[in-house]
Amino acid sequence: MRSFILAFLAATVLLAAPPAAASTDGGGGQTLSQTPWSVGLELGFVIVDKFAMFNMQIPLEYTFKVGPGELAPHFAFMLSARKNVIAISLPVGARYKIKVLQSHPLYVWPLLEIGPNFDGKTGDASGILLVGAGLSYLVHKHVELVFKPLALGAAFSDAGGVFLYNLTLGANFRF
Fold this sequence. Notes:
This protein is mainly β. Helices cover 9% and strands 65% of the residues. The protein is built from one helix and ten strands.
């Protein structure tokens, strides 16, 4: 966990540096909807009940301008695993990305995801609901760094439910 936090702090310091002189407007003219399609890779962990699991999410999203921000509906493949436990989720959701600084392509966004969840060992099906928030930074028109520090949710089935907390760091590759 400590190395994950140090890596995030290093990335934050590098992103806070002034942008390269490649753009006359300091990167402020870049928007996510200029390259609307993206495929991402987010890695981190999910805490379910009292144990942590490795978490990998691969979202496919399309971004378009809506109001003051940009809406990014997406479909994702999520794999969560730890010793003797595997869960596969297929959430559908959306992020509403709002540009924070006009001089830099830094975005803050709320997140909502819902979809089926499958136990890899037993094949039992349940549902998953995530509500969260995150940050993203467009380092190049084709690369967006993503940090999702807050995603709270629940996995629920006929047998009951469990609360979960998800934290991921990754990148979206835009085209």
